[in-house]
Amino acid sequence: MRKGNSYLALGLSLHLRNADSYFESLDGTKFVDNKNAGPVPIIKVKDAYWLNEKTYLAADIDGFYASSKFIDGADFDFEGSVLHASLRAGLLLTDYLETYFNLRFMGEPPRALPKTPTGPTASPTTDLRSSISARTSS
Question: Is the whole model's pTM more than 0.70, yes or no?
């Protein structure tokens, strides 16, 4: 959807995952190895706002939330989500060259539900990165 100097896009994609999950109790007496494959639906949002003819702000955001074996065919109950967001401020230097500052976030707070033999677990992963880049186009 475009309006004036901005646009917004919403979408869906499907990721086919092949997962290996390992859970071990803290005392080492219980261990579970789960291997399976299945679909993961992903919601996507993309937008940009042009401040003037040369300067813009943009975002690309992908995320999903899944729970239970019903959604993606796992043979155990689970709950998990991932958010991948890229926020960008750019400057067009010429008709074919631009530079931009990018801030990227990836977060994943998985949690196994008590139905696994080892009990509830949590292993959150979060990554925040920034970069300054240049891009050319023909």
Answer: no
